[in-house]
Structures are given as structure tokens and as C-alpha cells.
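Q: I'm building a small set of examples for a reading group on sequence design. Run inverse folding on the following structure and report the sequence directly after it, with nothing in between.
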């Protein structure tokens, strides 16, 4: 299984999610493990979240694996409030 880590920092919103999805596209191959490292993302909007949820759904039907690393409290809170934390394969920071 090939593994690729795509790192994003700053804000993930309507202006920046297209570039992340473009970077993800060539790695959507059967057997691949794609890690979205969003630990340096300090803001994420619902538009971006919908694209990530879509990529997760696609991974299940296309035969590749998605893993998402998050750390910033506002991002974790968005995932929890929307219920996405239960749907996405998240890697959360260890509790202190």
C-alpha cells in the first residue's frame, strides 16, 4: 500500500479547498492510503467539510483509504458539532 501525506495549514474554506482537492486527486488509487494532515488548519468552513466528507465516501467505493489528522480546537469542534467526527476516519491528538 502506498502512503501519501497531504499537509494543509491556515484556513480551509471556499477559497482553499479546491487546491487541496486537486492535490488529493492523483492519489485516489485503489490500495492507496491518503493522510490529510490538517493539524495546522486553524479554521474550516462547512463547504470544506462537505468536500472532505465526499472524499471519504469516494474512498470507500474507489478502494483507497483516507485518514485525517486534526488538532486545532475550532476544527475539532466543527467536526463534533456537525456529527462528522463520527463519520470520518480521524486521528486526534492524545488527551493531555
Amino acid at each position: 500500500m502506498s502512503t501519501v501525506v497531504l499537509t494543509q495549514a491556515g484556513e480551509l474554506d471556499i477559497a482553499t479547498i479546491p487546491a487541496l482537492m486537486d492535490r488529493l486527486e492523483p492519489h485516489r488509487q485503489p490500495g492507496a492510503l491518503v493522510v490529510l494532515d490538517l493539524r495546522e488548519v486553524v479554521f474550516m468552513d462547512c463547504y470544506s467539510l462537505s468536500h472532505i466528507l465526499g472524499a471519504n465516501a469516494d474512498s470507500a467505493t474507489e478502494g483507497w483509504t483516507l485518514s485525517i489528522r486534526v488538532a486545532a480546537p475550532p476544527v475539532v469542534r466543527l467536526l463534533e458539532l456537525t456529527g462528522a467526527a463520527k463519520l470520518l476516519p480521524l486521528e486526534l491528538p492524545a488527551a493531555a
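The chain has one domain: 3-91.
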